[in-house]
Specification:
With 190 residues, the chain is an all-alpha fold. The protein contains 10 helices and no strands. 36% of the residues are buried.
């Protein structure tokens, strides 16, 4: 049996690293359920930690596909948190890839009041893990004429989801980037 305080101190030290590598993952796995529980508590803010440590904990929850990670990360995304923590939670939740993760990404992607950076990442990552209902939700995003980056990410994400779903007939002939009309993002509703 490990001393919880000792594990917590070691975990916080590991989470303060600039780069999260396989050594951090191995240590957390070696601590078993106790290490995972501490990781979840750090990410949620239940244990005193700086933003950098919390952000790394949130990211690791997703990468390690910890049970209930999507719930913890979605809860983080519903709260007002530091941008570093929110972006790491977004990045982590995409690694989970389940229905809860897709719902959280879809909520940020489709909400015009979401932070612009978070919204672009949510759209991109939803394109990586999304399903049919996500493509339909993305198609209804009002990007407005000024947000060219978001419009392009929405277009790419929808095409990616459709391609994975076998909708190859909806992709432009000749592939992307051939300069045809199909490569332009479609006008979105205003």
């Amino acid at each position: 049996m490990h001393d919880t305080t000792d594990i917590q101190d070691q975990l916080l030290e590991l989470l303060a690293r600039i780069e999260i590598d396989e050594h951090v993952e191995l240590a957390i796995n070696a601590w078993g359920d106790e290490g995972i529980d501490l990781l979840r508590r750090i990410a949620r803010g239940d244990i005193e930690a700086d933003d950098y440590q919390r952000a790394n904990a949130a990211y690791l929850l997703g990468v390690l596909q910890v049970p209930k990670a999507a719930d913890d990360l979605a809860r983080i995304l519903e709260q007002k948190e530091a941008p570093r923590i929110r972006l790491s939670a977004l990045d982590g939740i995409r690694h989970v890839g389940d229905a809860t993760a897709r719902k959280a990404l879809r909520k940020i992607a489709t909400c015009a009041k979401s932070d612009a950076t978070e919204r672009v990442y949510a759209v991109e990552w939803l394109g990586q893990i999304g399903e049919d209902e996500d493509a339909k939700a993305l198609e209804n995003i009002d990007t407005g004429p000024a947000d060219v980056l978001l419009a392009q990410r929405v277009h790419d994400a929808v095409k990616s989801i459709q391609y994975r779903a076998g909708w190859s007939e909806s992709l432009p002939q000749g592939g992307e980037g051939d300069g045809g009309e199909e490569d332009e993002p479609k006008e979105t509703k205003r």
